[in-house]
Write a structure and sequence with these properties.
Layout lengths: L7 E6 L3 H9 L1 E9 L3 H4 L10 H6 L3 E4 L9 H14 L6 E5 L4 H10 L5 E5 L4
Parallel strand pairs: 1-2, 2-3, 4-5
Amino acid sequence: MRYCPDGIDMYFDNVGAEMQEAAVANMNTFGRVAVCGVISEYTDSGRRAAPHMLDVVCKRITIQGFLTADYLNIYPEFISTMANYLHDGKIKVLEDISYGVENVPSAFIGLFRGYNIGKKIVEIADN
């Protein structure tokens, strides 16, 4: 896998579908998946996010769903800790940038199909 040549230990999933399948297929033994959304299903009622269960069993992968509302009590602490992690380079922000208002439709479609990695941005004007 190009982005994770040593496999994946932890994966935060809010896309589902092919992205989730690819992540689970490349998980290391005892990998963990946190699922807080399945954007791939929001616009396609026939599509279901499901990893290959043989991977889950053989690699003893833990998949845990959660809602952010479950953790509102620690939100201020999270923001402080995350700001420090970003500042110290412990967490990298991935951005997928498209340029020009004419690319908004394809960027939006790609977002809901899970074609991008990281945050999707469409820059429509220079700063």
